[in-house]
Amino acid sequence: MSKTNPDELRKEAHVEENKELNIWEAMIPVIALVGMLAYNVFVFGDEAIGGSNQFILLMGGAVAAIVGFLNKVSYTTMLAEVAENIKSTTGALLILLLVGSLAGTWLISGVIPAMIYYGLQILNPTIFLAACVVICAIISIATGSSWTTSATVGIALIGIGEALGISLGMTAGAVLSGAYFGDKMSPLSDTTNLAPAMAGGNLFDHIKYMFLTTVPTISITLVVFIILGFTIDTTGSADTAAILNDIDATFNIHGWLFIVPIVVIALIIKKTPPLAALLIGTLLGGVFALIFQPDIVAGLTNSKELTFESGYKGIMNAITVETNVATDNPALNDLFTGKGMEGMLGTIWLIMCAMFFGGIMDGIGALSRITKSLLQMAKSTFGLFASTVGSCLALNITASDQYLAIVIPGKMFSQAYKDKGLDPTNLSRTLEDSGTVTSVLIPWNTCGAYHSGVLGVSVGEYFLYAIFNWLSPIMTLIFAAFQIKIKQLVIAD
Length: 493
Hints:
By secondary structure, the protein is mainly alpha-helical. Helix content is 72%, strand content 2%. It is built from 25 helices and four strands. It has helices at 6-13, 23-44, 52-70, 75-88, 90-108, 111-120, 128-143, 146-163, 168-185, 190-199, 203-231, 241-250, 259-269, 274-292, 294-299, 308-320, 330-335, 345-363, 366-377, 381-398, 402-419, 424-436, 446-455, 459-462, 467-481, and strands at residues 2-3, 323-324, 337-338, 491-492. The strands form two sheets. Strands 1-4 form a two-stranded antiparallel ribbon. Strands 2-3 form a two-stranded antiparallel ribbon. It is globular.
Protein backbone atom coordinates (compact mmCIF):
# COMPACT_ATOMS: atom_id res chain seq x y z
CA MET A 1 0.00 0.00 0.00
CA SER A 2 1.19 3.55 -0.71
CA LYS A 3 0.86 6.50 1.56
CA THR A 4 1.12 10.26 1.25
CA ASN A 5 0.66 11.32 4.87
CA PRO A 6 2.02 14.87 5.27
CA ASP A 7 3.40 14.24 8.77
CA GLU A 8 5.37 11.19 7.60
CA LEU A 9 6.63 13.05 4.53
CA ARG A 10 7.72 16.00 6.67
CA LYS A 11 9.58 13.68 9.01
CA GLU A 12 11.40 12.03 6.11
CA ALA A 13 12.31 15.43 4.65
CA HIS A 14 13.84 16.57 7.98
CA VAL A 15 12.00 19.90 7.87
CA GLU A 16 12.06 21.68 11.20
CA GLU A 17 9.04 23.61 12.49
CA ASN A 18 9.56 26.56 14.78
CA LYS A 19 6.29 27.50 16.44
CA GLU A 20 7.62 30.94 17.42
CA LEU A 21 8.56 31.97 13.86
CA ASN A 22 5.96 34.07 12.03
CA ILE A 23 5.69 34.52 8.26
CA TRP A 24 7.36 37.94 8.25
CA GLU A 25 10.37 36.64 10.16
CA ALA A 26 10.53 33.66 7.79
CA MET A 27 10.56 35.98 4.78
CA ILE A 28 13.39 38.21 6.06
CA PRO A 29 16.20 35.92 4.72
CA VAL A 30 14.41 35.52 1.37
CA ILE A 31 13.94 39.27 0.93
CA ALA A 32 17.53 39.91 1.97
CA LEU A 33 18.80 37.24 -0.41
CA VAL A 34 16.87 38.54 -3.41
CA GLY A 35 18.00 42.10 -2.68
CA MET A 36 21.66 41.10 -2.38
CA LEU A 37 21.48 38.94 -5.51
CA ALA A 38 19.86 41.71 -7.55
CA TYR A 39 22.60 44.17 -6.59
CA ASN A 40 25.33 41.58 -7.09
CA VAL A 41 24.15 40.78 -10.63
CA PHE A 42 23.88 44.52 -11.33
CA VAL A 43 27.54 44.94 -10.36
CA PHE A 44 29.04 41.76 -11.84
CA GLY A 45 26.69 41.10 -14.76
CA ASP A 46 27.38 37.78 -16.51
CA GLU A 47 30.32 37.11 -14.18
CA ALA A 48 28.09 36.90 -11.09
CA ILE A 49 27.62 33.14 -11.50
CA GLY A 50 31.41 32.72 -11.35
CA GLY A 51 31.44 32.86 -7.57
CA SER A 52 29.96 36.03 -6.12
CA ASN A 53 26.39 34.69 -6.32
CA GLN A 54 27.54 31.63 -4.40
CA PHE A 55 28.88 33.81 -1.62
CA ILE A 56 25.63 35.79 -1.59
CA LEU A 57 23.82 32.51 -0.92
CA LEU A 58 26.09 32.03 2.09
CA MET A 59 25.27 35.56 3.22
CA GLY A 60 21.58 34.76 2.85
CA GLY A 61 22.14 31.73 5.06
CA ALA A 62 23.89 33.97 7.61
CA VAL A 63 20.84 36.27 7.72
CA ALA A 64 18.63 33.20 8.23
CA ALA A 65 20.93 32.04 11.04
CA ILE A 66 20.57 35.40 12.82
CA VAL A 67 16.78 35.05 12.60
CA GLY A 68 17.18 31.56 14.01
CA PHE A 69 19.33 32.65 16.93
CA LEU A 70 16.81 35.37 17.79
CA ASN A 71 14.15 32.65 17.86
CA LYS A 72 16.21 30.33 20.09
CA VAL A 73 17.22 27.82 17.39
CA SER A 74 20.56 26.21 18.21
CA TYR A 75 23.64 26.25 16.00
CA THR A 76 23.72 22.44 16.15
CA THR A 77 20.19 22.17 14.77
CA MET A 78 20.95 24.48 11.86
CA LEU A 79 24.25 22.78 11.00
CA ALA A 80 22.57 19.36 11.12
CA GLU A 81 20.03 20.50 8.53
CA VAL A 82 22.80 21.87 6.30
CA ALA A 83 24.57 18.51 6.48
CA GLU A 84 21.33 16.68 5.67
CA ASN A 85 20.69 18.94 2.69
CA ILE A 86 24.17 18.45 1.25
CA LYS A 87 23.90 14.72 1.81
CA SER A 88 20.65 14.65 -0.20
CA THR A 89 22.47 16.05 -3.26
CA THR A 90 25.34 13.53 -3.23
CA GLY A 91 23.96 11.61 -6.20
CA ALA A 92 23.34 14.77 -8.20
CA LEU A 93 26.87 16.06 -7.53
CA LEU A 94 28.42 12.80 -8.72
CA ILE A 95 26.21 12.83 -11.80
CA LEU A 96 27.37 16.35 -12.61
CA LEU A 97 31.01 15.23 -12.48
CA LEU A 98 30.29 12.31 -14.80
CA VAL A 99 28.33 14.55 -17.16
CA GLY A 100 31.44 16.70 -17.48
CA SER A 101 33.62 13.68 -18.15
CA LEU A 102 31.19 12.30 -20.74
CA ALA A 103 31.05 15.62 -22.60
CA GLY A 104 34.85 15.61 -22.76
CA THR A 105 35.23 12.16 -24.32
CA TRP A 106 32.27 12.68 -26.63
CA LEU A 107 33.98 15.77 -27.98
CA ILE A 108 37.40 14.29 -28.72
CA SER A 109 35.88 11.03 -30.04
CA GLY A 110 33.93 12.97 -32.67
CA VAL A 111 30.49 12.07 -31.34
CA ILE A 112 29.45 15.71 -30.75
CA PRO A 113 31.06 16.96 -33.99
CA ALA A 114 29.25 14.19 -35.93
CA MET A 115 25.91 15.32 -34.48
CA ILE A 116 26.67 18.87 -35.59
CA TYR A 117 27.97 17.75 -39.00
CA TYR A 118 24.85 15.78 -39.92
CA GLY A 119 22.54 18.29 -38.25
CA LEU A 120 23.75 21.16 -40.43
CA GLN A 121 23.01 19.21 -43.59
CA ILE A 122 19.25 19.34 -43.10
CA LEU A 123 19.21 23.09 -43.93
CA ASN A 124 16.82 24.12 -46.71
CA PRO A 125 15.88 27.71 -47.57
CA THR A 126 12.15 26.98 -47.74
CA ILE A 127 12.03 25.56 -44.22
CA PHE A 128 15.00 27.53 -42.93
CA LEU A 129 13.36 28.69 -39.69
CA ALA A 130 12.16 25.22 -38.74
CA ALA A 131 15.59 23.86 -39.68
CA CYS A 132 17.18 26.39 -37.33
CA VAL A 133 15.07 25.00 -34.48
CA VAL A 134 16.06 21.41 -35.30
CA ILE A 135 19.76 22.13 -35.80
CA CYS A 136 20.09 24.14 -32.60
CA ALA A 137 18.10 21.51 -30.70
CA ILE A 138 20.46 18.76 -31.88
CA ILE A 139 23.58 20.73 -31.06
CA SER A 140 22.27 21.90 -27.70
CA ILE A 141 21.31 18.34 -26.74
CA ALA A 142 24.79 17.19 -27.77
CA THR A 143 26.60 19.93 -25.86
CA GLY A 144 24.10 20.61 -23.05
CA SER A 145 24.62 24.35 -23.53
CA SER A 146 22.28 26.91 -25.09
CA TRP A 147 25.01 29.53 -24.65
CA THR A 148 27.53 27.56 -26.72
CA THR A 149 24.92 26.81 -29.39
CA SER A 150 23.96 30.47 -29.68
CA ALA A 151 27.56 31.68 -29.81
CA THR A 152 28.62 29.27 -32.55
CA VAL A 153 26.04 27.81 -34.91
CA GLY A 154 23.54 30.46 -33.81
CA ILE A 155 25.75 33.24 -35.15
CA ALA A 156 26.21 31.35 -38.43
CA LEU A 157 22.45 30.87 -38.80
CA ILE A 158 21.81 34.57 -38.11
CA GLY A 159 24.18 35.38 -40.98
CA ILE A 160 22.50 32.86 -43.27
CA GLY A 161 19.04 34.19 -42.37
CA GLU A 162 20.11 37.74 -43.05
CA ALA A 163 21.49 36.67 -46.46
CA LEU A 164 18.13 35.06 -47.22
CA GLY A 165 16.30 38.26 -46.31
CA ILE A 166 14.62 36.75 -43.24
CA SER A 167 13.88 38.92 -40.20
CA LEU A 168 16.70 38.77 -37.66
CA GLY A 169 14.10 38.50 -34.88
CA MET A 170 12.56 35.43 -36.54
CA THR A 171 15.92 33.72 -36.98
CA ALA A 172 17.03 34.53 -33.42
CA GLY A 173 13.71 33.29 -32.05
CA ALA A 174 14.11 30.00 -33.94
CA VAL A 175 17.72 29.63 -32.77
CA LEU A 176 16.81 30.22 -29.13
CA SER A 177 13.74 27.97 -29.27
CA GLY A 178 15.86 25.06 -30.46
CA ALA A 179 18.81 25.90 -28.19
CA TYR A 180 16.67 25.99 -25.06
CA PHE A 181 14.77 22.85 -26.02
CA GLY A 182 18.09 21.03 -26.23
CA ASP A 183 19.46 22.68 -23.10
CA LYS A 184 16.33 21.68 -21.21
CA MET A 185 16.30 18.05 -22.37
CA SER A 186 20.02 17.24 -22.39
CA PRO A 187 21.48 15.25 -19.48
CA LEU A 188 24.67 17.23 -20.14
CA SER A 189 22.96 20.50 -19.18
CA ASP A 190 23.73 21.97 -15.76
CA THR A 191 20.19 23.34 -15.36
CA THR A 192 18.73 19.94 -16.23
CA ASN A 193 20.83 18.45 -13.44
CA LEU A 194 20.15 21.36 -11.09
CA ALA A 195 16.33 21.20 -11.21
CA PRO A 196 15.90 17.61 -9.92
CA ALA A 197 18.69 18.20 -7.40
CA MET A 198 16.72 21.11 -5.92
CA ALA A 199 13.37 19.30 -6.08
CA GLY A 200 14.72 16.06 -4.63
CA GLY A 201 14.14 13.95 -7.73
CA ASN A 202 16.07 11.77 -10.18
CA LEU A 203 17.76 13.15 -13.31
CA PHE A 204 16.40 10.67 -15.83
CA ASP A 205 12.93 10.56 -14.27
CA HIS A 206 12.97 14.35 -14.57
CA ILE A 207 13.92 14.24 -18.27
CA LYS A 208 11.28 11.61 -19.06
CA TYR A 209 8.59 13.61 -17.24
CA MET A 210 9.57 16.79 -19.10
CA PHE A 211 8.68 15.11 -22.40
CA LEU A 212 5.00 15.42 -21.47
CA THR A 213 4.98 19.22 -21.68
CA THR A 214 8.04 19.78 -23.85
CA VAL A 215 7.02 17.66 -26.87
CA PRO A 216 3.70 19.53 -27.38
CA THR A 217 5.50 22.86 -26.91
CA ILE A 218 8.28 22.18 -29.41
CA SER A 219 5.76 20.66 -31.84
CA ILE A 220 3.66 23.84 -31.81
CA THR A 221 6.85 25.86 -32.19
CA LEU A 222 7.91 23.87 -35.26
CA VAL A 223 4.46 24.14 -36.86
CA VAL A 224 4.47 27.92 -36.42
CA PHE A 225 7.95 28.25 -37.94
CA ILE A 226 7.03 25.96 -40.86
CA ILE A 227 4.01 28.16 -41.58
CA LEU A 228 6.15 31.29 -41.30
CA GLY A 229 8.68 29.73 -43.66
CA PHE A 230 6.07 29.26 -46.36
CA THR A 231 4.69 32.79 -45.98
CA ILE A 232 7.93 34.77 -46.30
CA ASP A 233 10.07 35.31 -49.38
CA THR A 234 13.64 34.02 -49.27
CA THR A 235 16.51 34.75 -51.63
CA GLY A 236 19.89 33.14 -52.03
CA SER A 237 20.90 29.80 -50.50
CA ALA A 238 21.97 28.48 -47.13
CA ASP A 239 25.62 27.68 -47.67
CA THR A 240 27.15 25.68 -44.84
CA ALA A 241 29.85 24.06 -46.96
CA ALA A 242 32.68 25.95 -45.26
CA ILE A 243 31.62 24.84 -41.77
CA LEU A 244 31.08 21.25 -42.91
CA ASN A 245 34.49 21.19 -44.62
CA ASP A 246 36.20 22.51 -41.47
CA ILE A 247 34.56 19.83 -39.32
CA ASP A 248 35.39 17.10 -41.85
CA ALA A 249 39.00 18.30 -42.07
CA THR A 250 39.43 18.14 -38.29
CA PHE A 251 37.55 14.98 -37.34
CA ASN A 252 37.08 11.57 -38.90
CA ILE A 253 33.27 11.68 -39.17
CA HIS A 254 31.64 8.24 -39.28
CA GLY A 255 28.13 6.94 -38.71
CA TRP A 256 29.66 4.37 -36.35
CA LEU A 257 30.21 7.14 -33.81
CA PHE A 258 26.48 7.16 -33.08
CA ILE A 259 26.88 3.75 -31.45
CA VAL A 260 28.06 5.58 -28.32
CA PRO A 261 24.95 7.74 -27.72
CA ILE A 262 22.67 4.88 -28.83
CA VAL A 263 24.20 2.62 -26.17
CA VAL A 264 23.73 5.28 -23.49
CA ILE A 265 20.13 5.90 -24.56
CA ALA A 266 19.47 2.15 -24.47
CA LEU A 267 20.92 1.94 -20.96
CA ILE A 268 18.69 4.79 -19.82
CA ILE A 269 15.61 3.13 -21.35
CA LYS A 270 16.56 -0.08 -19.53
CA LYS A 271 16.58 1.97 -16.29
CA THR A 272 20.28 1.51 -15.68
CA PRO A 273 21.38 3.67 -12.72
CA PRO A 274 22.40 7.10 -14.06
CA LEU A 275 25.92 6.93 -12.64
CA ALA A 276 26.53 3.59 -14.38
CA ALA A 277 25.06 4.78 -17.71
CA LEU A 278 27.14 7.96 -17.71
CA LEU A 279 30.32 6.12 -16.72
CA ILE A 280 29.83 3.59 -19.53
CA GLY A 281 29.16 6.46 -21.96
CA THR A 282 32.36 8.18 -20.83
CA LEU A 283 34.48 5.07 -21.24
CA LEU A 284 32.96 4.23 -24.63
CA GLY A 285 33.68 7.78 -25.75
CA GLY A 286 37.30 7.33 -24.72
CA VAL A 287 37.61 4.03 -26.63
CA PHE A 288 36.05 5.52 -29.76
CA ALA A 289 38.38 8.51 -29.49
CA LEU A 290 41.39 6.17 -29.65
CA ILE A 291 39.88 4.31 -32.62
CA PHE A 292 38.52 7.16 -34.75
CA GLN A 293 40.49 10.25 -33.65
CA PRO A 294 44.02 9.06 -32.74
CA ASP A 295 45.67 12.25 -34.07
CA ILE A 296 43.41 14.47 -31.95
CA VAL A 297 44.05 12.41 -28.80
CA ALA A 298 47.80 12.53 -29.39
CA GLY A 299 47.61 16.26 -30.15
CA LEU A 300 46.03 16.95 -26.75
CA THR A 301 49.39 16.04 -25.19
CA ASN A 302 51.49 17.66 -27.96
CA SER A 303 52.60 14.23 -29.14
CA LYS A 304 53.28 13.54 -32.81
CA GLU A 305 51.82 10.04 -32.67
CA LEU A 306 49.50 8.03 -30.46
CA THR A 307 51.23 5.91 -27.85
CA PHE A 308 49.86 4.21 -24.77
CA GLU A 309 51.10 7.05 -22.58
CA SER A 310 49.86 9.89 -24.82
CA GLY A 311 46.53 8.11 -25.35
CA TYR A 312 46.02 7.63 -21.63
CA LYS A 313 46.99 11.21 -20.84
CA GLY A 314 44.84 12.65 -23.65
CA ILE A 315 41.72 10.75 -22.56
CA MET A 316 42.26 11.64 -18.90
CA ASN A 317 42.68 15.31 -19.78
CA ALA A 318 39.42 15.28 -21.74
CA ILE A 319 37.65 13.66 -18.79
CA THR A 320 38.99 15.93 -16.09
CA VAL A 321 40.07 19.36 -17.39
CA GLU A 322 39.47 21.79 -20.25
CA THR A 323 40.50 20.53 -23.67
CA ASN A 324 40.44 22.32 -27.02
CA VAL A 325 40.28 20.82 -30.49
CA ALA A 326 41.57 23.47 -32.90
CA THR A 327 40.01 23.99 -36.35
CA ASP A 328 40.44 26.59 -39.08
CA ASN A 329 37.12 28.15 -38.04
CA PRO A 330 37.24 30.42 -34.93
CA ALA A 331 33.54 29.83 -34.17
CA LEU A 332 34.03 26.06 -34.21
CA ASN A 333 37.01 26.43 -31.87
CA ASP A 334 34.64 27.77 -29.23
CA LEU A 335 32.18 24.95 -29.86
CA PHE A 336 34.86 22.24 -29.79
CA THR A 337 36.05 23.09 -26.28
CA GLY A 338 35.31 20.61 -23.52
CA LYS A 339 35.67 21.48 -19.85
CA GLY A 340 35.55 17.98 -18.38
CA MET A 341 34.76 17.39 -14.72
CA GLU A 342 36.46 20.67 -13.88
CA GLY A 343 33.80 22.56 -15.83
CA MET A 344 31.08 21.26 -13.50
CA LEU A 345 32.71 22.54 -10.32
CA GLY A 346 30.98 25.93 -10.60
CA THR A 347 27.54 24.32 -10.61
CA ILE A 348 28.54 21.99 -7.78
CA TRP A 349 29.73 25.03 -5.82
CA LEU A 350 26.40 26.72 -6.47
CA ILE A 351 24.44 23.67 -5.29
CA MET A 352 26.43 23.37 -2.07
CA CYS A 353 25.97 27.06 -1.25
CA ALA A 354 22.27 26.77 -2.04
CA MET A 355 22.08 23.77 0.27
CA PHE A 356 23.67 25.89 3.01
CA PHE A 357 21.01 28.57 2.59
CA GLY A 358 18.24 25.98 2.33
CA GLY A 359 19.58 24.02 5.30
CA ILE A 360 19.60 27.05 7.58
CA MET A 361 16.10 27.95 6.37
CA ASP A 362 15.03 24.37 7.15
CA GLY A 363 16.72 24.43 10.52
CA ILE A 364 15.05 27.61 11.76
CA GLY A 365 11.64 26.49 10.48
CA ALA A 366 11.39 29.26 7.88
CA LEU A 367 10.72 26.99 4.90
CA SER A 368 8.02 25.18 6.84
CA ARG A 369 6.35 28.48 7.70
CA ILE A 370 6.61 29.80 4.12
CA THR A 371 5.32 26.61 2.52
CA LYS A 372 2.38 26.50 4.93
CA SER A 373 1.49 30.06 3.96
CA LEU A 374 1.84 29.22 0.27
CA LEU A 375 -0.38 26.19 0.67
CA GLN A 376 -2.99 28.32 2.37
CA MET A 377 -2.99 30.65 -0.63
CA ALA A 378 -2.66 27.81 -3.15
CA LYS A 379 -5.63 25.72 -2.18
CA SER A 380 -5.55 23.68 -5.38
CA THR A 381 -2.86 21.81 -7.27
CA PHE A 382 -3.11 24.42 -10.00
CA GLY A 383 -2.54 27.16 -7.44
CA LEU A 384 0.69 25.46 -6.31
CA PHE A 385 1.94 25.12 -9.89
CA ALA A 386 0.98 28.73 -10.62
CA SER A 387 2.80 29.93 -7.50
CA THR A 388 5.93 28.06 -8.62
CA VAL A 389 5.78 29.54 -12.12
CA GLY A 390 5.23 33.02 -10.70
CA SER A 391 8.16 32.65 -8.31
CA CYS A 392 10.51 31.50 -11.08
CA LEU A 393 9.50 34.41 -13.31
CA ALA A 394 9.83 36.88 -10.44
CA LEU A 395 13.36 35.67 -9.63
CA ASN A 396 14.38 35.76 -13.29
CA ILE A 397 13.28 39.39 -13.31
CA THR A 398 14.63 40.46 -9.90
CA ALA A 399 17.68 38.24 -9.36
CA SER A 400 18.47 38.21 -13.11
CA ASP A 401 19.84 34.67 -13.19
CA GLN A 402 18.29 31.40 -14.36
CA TYR A 403 20.22 29.31 -11.85
CA LEU A 404 18.79 31.25 -8.93
CA ALA A 405 15.31 31.03 -10.50
CA ILE A 406 15.71 27.26 -10.15
CA VAL A 407 17.60 27.02 -6.87
CA ILE A 408 15.48 29.26 -4.63
CA PRO A 409 11.94 28.21 -5.70
CA GLY A 410 13.13 24.60 -5.87
CA LYS A 411 14.21 24.62 -2.26
CA MET A 412 11.26 26.67 -1.04
CA PHE A 413 8.54 24.63 -2.78
CA SER A 414 9.91 21.09 -2.41
CA GLN A 415 8.09 20.41 0.86
CA ALA A 416 4.87 22.05 -0.37
CA TYR A 417 4.68 19.59 -3.28
CA LYS A 418 5.23 16.66 -0.93
CA ASP A 419 2.57 17.97 1.43
CA LYS A 420 0.17 17.96 -1.52
CA GLY A 421 1.14 14.35 -2.26
CA LEU A 422 2.92 15.29 -5.50
CA ASP A 423 6.05 13.62 -6.85
CA PRO A 424 9.21 15.82 -6.98
CA THR A 425 9.25 15.52 -10.78
CA ASN A 426 6.23 17.85 -10.88
CA LEU A 427 8.34 20.54 -9.24
CA SER A 428 11.53 19.91 -11.21
CA ARG A 429 9.60 20.00 -14.50
CA THR A 430 7.87 23.25 -13.54
CA LEU A 431 11.21 24.79 -12.55
CA GLU A 432 12.59 24.06 -16.02
CA ASP A 433 9.38 25.03 -17.84
CA SER A 434 9.35 28.43 -16.15
CA GLY A 435 12.81 29.12 -14.71
CA THR A 436 15.25 27.88 -17.34
CA VAL A 437 13.56 28.87 -20.59
CA THR A 438 12.16 32.31 -19.69
CA SER A 439 15.51 33.75 -18.58
CA VAL A 440 16.37 34.62 -22.17
CA LEU A 441 13.21 36.75 -22.49
CA ILE A 442 14.38 39.33 -19.92
CA PRO A 443 16.86 41.92 -21.26
CA TRP A 444 18.68 42.47 -17.95
CA ASN A 445 18.83 38.78 -17.07
CA THR A 446 22.29 37.28 -17.63
CA CYS A 447 20.83 34.96 -20.31
CA GLY A 448 18.89 37.70 -22.09
CA ALA A 449 21.89 40.02 -22.09
CA TYR A 450 24.23 37.26 -23.28
CA HIS A 451 22.16 35.92 -26.17
CA SER A 452 21.12 39.39 -27.30
CA GLY A 453 24.75 40.48 -27.38
CA VAL A 454 26.04 37.33 -29.07
CA LEU A 455 23.38 37.21 -31.79
CA GLY A 456 23.28 40.96 -32.28
CA VAL A 457 19.48 40.97 -31.94
CA SER A 458 17.65 42.77 -29.13
CA VAL A 459 15.32 40.88 -26.81
CA GLY A 460 12.45 43.01 -28.05
CA GLU A 461 13.11 41.85 -31.64
CA TYR A 462 13.16 38.13 -30.88
CA PHE A 463 10.76 37.97 -27.89
CA LEU A 464 7.65 37.13 -29.93
CA TYR A 465 9.50 34.58 -32.05
CA ALA A 466 11.13 32.76 -29.12
CA ILE A 467 7.95 30.70 -29.14
CA PHE A 468 9.24 27.71 -27.21
CA ASN A 469 10.48 29.93 -24.39
CA TRP A 470 7.28 31.84 -23.61
CA LEU A 471 4.97 28.94 -24.46
CA SER A 472 6.64 26.51 -22.00
CA PRO A 473 5.29 28.03 -18.75
CA ILE A 474 1.85 28.36 -20.37
CA MET A 475 1.93 24.68 -21.31
CA THR A 476 2.86 23.55 -17.80
CA LEU A 477 -0.04 25.62 -16.38
CA ILE A 478 -2.45 24.08 -18.90
CA PHE A 479 -1.37 20.59 -17.78
CA ALA A 480 -1.86 21.60 -14.15
CA ALA A 481 -5.25 23.25 -14.76
CA PHE A 482 -6.66 20.17 -16.49
CA GLN A 483 -4.83 17.69 -14.22
CA ILE A 484 -3.02 16.10 -17.16
CA LYS A 485 -0.33 13.61 -16.14
CA ILE A 486 0.20 15.03 -12.65
CA LYS A 487 2.36 12.41 -10.98
CA GLN A 488 1.39 11.49 -7.43
CA LEU A 489 3.95 10.74 -4.73
CA VAL A 490 4.12 7.06 -3.84
CA ILE A 491 5.99 5.85 -0.77
CA ALA A 492 6.27 2.11 -0.28
CA ASP A 493 5.58 0.63 3.15
